[in-house]
Write a structure and sequence with these properties.
The complex is a heterodimer. Chain A is built from 3 helices and no strands. By secondary structure, chain A is mainly α. Chain A has one domain. In chain A, helix 2 packs across helix 3. About 6% of the residues of chain A have low confidence. By secondary structure, chain B is mainly α. Chain B has one domain. Helix content of chain B is 66%, strand content 4%. Chain B has a two-stranded antiparallel sheet with strand order 1-4. A two-stranded antiparallel ribbon of chain B has the order 2-3. In chain B, helix 4 runs antiparallel to helix 5 and helix 4 runs parallel beside helix 6. The chains are: A mainly alpha, B mainly alpha. Chains A and B meet through helix 1 and helix 2 of A and strand 3, strand 4, helix 1, helix 2 and helix 3 of B.
Chain lengths: 183, 246
């Protein structure tokens, strides 16, 4: 402010210097009292018009526009929040369903796994039993075949021996005797 | 020097009659000052008419500009005075827009700066001073006199403080008006002086020209700033009138 005042004073003095060689006007135009009524008069007129224009036209319109915008924005924000909460709800539900589904799936998988294991175990046991039985049967068969074949050989030998005896010794031998001798 | 001294910085402030009007012995002529008051008025009216012509939720540029100025002044008033200041908003808003456009139009070469005349700024300041005083007494009764004796000051200091407060209160309109007027007057005069130097120095004129450009930017800032200061001080005075306790 001090600087401005100094410039102001400087201008006042400089003007008097310039005015001396210039148009010869006296002092600052700001100090010319004769222009005051006109300035004040037109200031009052223009400013009153401006005031009425602002008061009656600009401010009501602007404030309604700004209020409308505020309302619209807050409404939009509310709606967006509603939608957002809905969306999060749906997402939560989806997650729940997903987790329960995956749990179900894992239980199903483990169940079927154990079932499968059991089944295979049973199958294995059964097959083993069957195989054992089959082995026993075949062993028995082998044994019986052995006996049979031994008997057959013995009988065949007996017959042969009988025939030999009948041919060469002309004797009807007793079977028991022959058997005794053969053994 | 027929057309006046080329660096006569005061020439731009001279008032010349455009239409001679005499009413009741008073010279109420339409002068260049009046013309530029009308220009400032029309600039404001144009800004808001264009800004308000197509109002939409998503504003266009001119609407944005008018809403920005509205919000700027509304926030200033709310911050300084509070909700009680609402009634004075049209006046504060008009005041700011008028001074702002007067200052800005005055920056265009060959124009006239309405606010460089002390009588104009003093008319505003005086009006504000009287209005604030009336508002103060109407709202607070004689309690408004408390502003001359701030609370918490020992009684023996009262003979010292009260006159100082009264003087500072009475000097408010003077400081308010002189601040704006002197800023405009000094700034425009300096611009004119440097413009004159630029012309006079011929080729060497680029040096003052550079300075002129910088100064012009500064003056643009000052034009906006002084309108702001004038308005915010009005708000502060209004706040003092409405709440004299603090």
């Amino acid at each position: 402010m001090k600087i401005l005042v100094q410039i102001f004073i400087l201008l006042l003095s400089s003007h008097t210097i310039f005015a001396a060689e210039g148009q010869g006007s006296t002092g600052l135009p700001q100090m010319d009292i004769t222009t005051f009524p006109s300035q004040l008069f037109w200031l009052v007129i223009t400013f009153t018009i401006l005031y009425i224009f602002m008061w009656r036209v600009v401010i009501p319109k602007l404030s309604t526009t700004i209020e409308e915008r505020k309302d619209k924005i807050s409404n939009d924000i509310n709606e967006a929040e509603k939608f957002n909460s809905e969306a999060t709800g749906i997402h939560e539900k989806y997650e729940e369903q997903m987790s329960s589904a995956s749990q179900n799936a894992s239980t199903i998988i483990s169940e079927s796994k154990s079932q499968m294991n059991e089944y295979f175990e049973n199958l294995k046991l059964e097959n083993e039993k069957k195989i054992e039985e089959m082995i026993k049967k075949s062993q028995e068969m082998i044994k019986s075949r052995e006996k049979e074949s031994i008997n057959e050989v013995r009988n065949a030998t007996l017959e042969t021996v009988k025939e030999i005896i009948v041919k060469y010794l002309d004797k009807t031998p007793n079977d028991d005797e022959i058997l005794k001798k053969l053994n | 020097m027929a057309a006046g001294n080329p660096i006569d910085p005061i020439h731009q402030f001279e008032i010349s009659k455009i239409a001679d009007i005499q009413i009741g012995g008073l010279d109420l002529s339409f002068t260049n000052s009046s013309l530029f008051m009308v220009f400032a008025l029309s600039a404001t009216v144009m800004l808001f008419l264009i800004g308000l012509s197509r109002r939409s939720i998503i504003p266009n540029r001119m609407q944005m500009l008018s809403e920005l100025s509205y919000n700027f002044i509304a926030n200033m008033l709310r911050d300084q005075v509070g909700d009680q200041g609402r009634a004075y908003f049209p006046f504060i808003f008009s005041l700011f827009m008028f001074i702002f456009f007067c200052n800005f139009i005055g920056l265009i070469p060959y124009t006239f700066t309405v606010t460089s005349h002390l009588i104009v700024t003093f008319a505003f300041a005086g009006l504000i001073f009287i209005a604030v005083t009336i508002i103060g007494f109407v709202k607070n009764g004689l309690g408004y006199l408390r502003i001359f004796y701030p609370s918490g000051i020992p009684i023996f200091l009262a003979p010292l403080i009260v006159p100082i407060e009264i003087i500072s209160y009475l000097s408010k309109p003077i400081s308010l008006s002189v601040r704006l007027c002197a800023n405009m007057l000094a700034g425009h005069s300096i611009l004119k002086i440097f413009a004159g130097f630029t012309v006079m120095l011929g080729f060497l004129g680029f040096a003052p020209l550079v300075f002129l450009v910088v100064l012009y930017a500064l003056e643009t800032l000052i034009a906006a700033l002084q309108a702001y200061i004038f308005t915010i001080l009005t708000c502060i005075y209004l706040n003092d009138a409405l709440h004299p306790d603090h």
